[in-house]
Amino acid sequence: MAAPCLAHPHTIPGIWTPLSPMPSAVLDIYAAPFFDRHVGAQTDKPKPFNVIVTAGGASSHARDEITNQVNAYDPVANLWLHATPLPEARRQLALVAHNGFLYAIGGYSMSEEASWRMQTNCWRLETLNDVWRPMRPLDGPRAEGVCHSFDTLIHIIGGRAPFGSANYSRRDHLDTDQHWAYDARENRWFQLAPMPTSRSSSAGAVLGKVLHVIGGRSNGSGALTAHETYDPLADRWSTAAPLPEALSGLTASTLEGKIFIFGGAQSTDHSTIVSDVWAYDDNEDKWRPAAPMKQPRRYHAAVALEKAIYLLGGEGRSIEGAASNVLDRFEA
To answer: Considering its fold, how many domains does the chain have in total?
Structure first.
């Protein structure tokens, strides 16, 4: 049963509700809202989105077990639906809805000779039971970046990229500041202004006409508090109020005119997984604590739909632990 979570007077209250668990436990995932015309009741005025989709992921952060499974959650029926699997198993695969299609981009594949081989693929899906169709690939392998549909383009910001010719394991990759955009009308990728801070495992959200990138980690320096914003009209980056605590492996979404940050890991070795929730008000350029999650999580996903944010999967309390199949709804 849902109940309000209350803390000290400066904490933003919220209601957490457990929902139908995911079909399988998974971490290292992205999720996206999507509209599928075959789901739910048909009306003359369909809602912009009616399902939440996840694709790929891993069963454990330590073991080399990844999936090509694609699932969709119907929040009206509180049911999970199976969708067409990815052409290949991936983890940290960027997933984004754009112009009526679902795009899956980059990520890591695994094989006997390469445990973390970064990829360039870009696939597109029209309906949940359609075929994934190849689009123009990235100009270079990418994973763990922020991905958003914003200002008529798909943006891939930061993440990790190979620093040399090798691309077999995480030792072959470095965090990057690169900012790539995809124009679906022309099926082409091009570069925009790089992010001031090279980083991966950060969180991203769009608020108004600005894209925010928050937290993450940078080339072995530990978790970050960095908060930077991108103005697409000026192709320019600025800084905003830093997170009150350094976090990597966190996730974010926008609700009621605020950005909410969920979970992540603290400390240099990323060993402390938290249940903390923070809310950012761009009018005041300030962060406030919000009602915490029921359990610590990192490498999970967040999606806003209607008047709630849905938190999916991730890794729980133990470092290098197993994935979770938990689905929770947050209402502020």
So the answer is: 1
Give tens-digit pLDDT for 62-118: 666 899 999 999 999 999 999 999 999 999 999 999 999 999 999 999 988 888 999
Q: What pTM was estimated for this model as a whole?
A: 0.94
**Whole-Å CA distances, 289 to 8, 216, 255:** 9, 19, 15
Whether residue 271 is contained in a domain is answered as: yes
In a domain, 237, yes or no: yes
Confidence of residue 220 (pLDDT cuts 50, 70, 90): confident
Q: How high is the pLDDT of residue 47?
A: 63
Q: Give buried/exposed letters for 249-276 (b at 16+ CB in 10 A, else e).
A: bbbbbbbeebbbbbbbbbeeebeebbeb
The number of C-alpha atoms within 13 Å of 68 and in the hemisphere containing its C-beta is: 10
The Cα 130–Cα 83 span in angstroms is 8
| Domain residue limits at 325 | 14-331
pLDDT tens per residue, range 139-149: 999 999 999 99
> Can you say how many angstroms the Cα of residue 109 is from the centroid of all Cα atoms in its chain?
18
Q: How far apart are CA 238 and CA 285, in angstroms?
A: 12
270: Cβ contacts below 8 Å, ≥ 6 apart: 217, 222, 223, 248, 249, 298, 319
